Amino acid sequence: MIAVQPDLGYSPLYIVEQEGWLKQAMPGVSVTWDSLNSGSAMETGMISGSIGVGAGGIAPFVLGWSSGVGWKLLSSLGETDLWLVVKPSIKSFKDITPSDRIAVVAPTSIQAIILKKAAQKYLGNPSALDQNLTILSHPVAEQAFVSGSVQGALDAPPFQQEEVAAGGHVLLKSYQLFGPSTFNSAFVLSSYYNSHKAEMQILYAQIKRAVNLLNTDPSKAATIISAYEHGTLSAAAAKADITSSTEHWTVTPHGYLAYAKFMKSIGLIHTAPSSIQQMELPTLYGTHGS
What we know:
Elements: E1 2-4, H1 11-19, H2 21-25, E2 33-35, H3 39-48, E3 54-57, H4 58-66, E4 71-80, E5 83-86, E6 102-104, H5 110-123, E7 133-135, H6 138-147, E8 152-154, H7 159-165, E9 169-173, H8 175-178, E10 182-189, H9 190-195, H10 197-216, H11 218-228, H12 235-242, E11 247-248, H13 256-265
Parallel strand pairs: 1-2, 6-7, 6-8
Antiparallel strand pairs: 3-10, 4-10, 4-11, 5-8, 5-9
Helix pairs in contact: 1-10, 1-11, 4-13, 6-7, 10-11, 11-12
């Protein structure tokens, strides 16, 4: 089973699934897909063996790697500049009051780590906004922001763009803190990779094929993504999002060392990698990630 989560950062895997490329490349091999809402559910499923290939953000991956889960990176899915979108009355971090709610998908998500880094930089304490967090899936966070039940949201495309269109403004962009960084990646347990090397090489090749399509023919890619979303996201909207300046589609991982260094500095992990190669599978050898 391959598990994904609901935002456009998973677009390469959406394309691979929608187009049936794995079935074409591996006839006779059973491939199933599932959608989950958090990195913790992904980790539980992979450890139990019910999920073979997981996908998710930097922070949950780093947490699992540091704690000895045993997974490594198969491929980056792309880089995204993630936005903290807030109501108009919040002009700076110092304007956020204890009653202002900020939606993130999980307390250990990449979005939560971005907020901790921002709190450290602008408020002098990485935990200063912890009590403001409200845990919501990306689609629910967008609805809550529009309705006014949360005053801020740090989620992902296309939801962050929809929140701005609904009257919010961008208070922070993740690249301001960590530079261009992978948003989501595909990863597997080393033991699973070793027993499924041929299949994993094929999966990597198909992810790379999808990334190439996103870069060279975004109109076609957007049509596929719209079909994957059963038309709830139009092809025009999908194209606008996947060609946005916030997105860069690449299989090369970036930002893992920067996030891990920060997470170690505030005590979230005890072990940080000294090189990206410690986190990679052979599919990524020589790609010069960070």
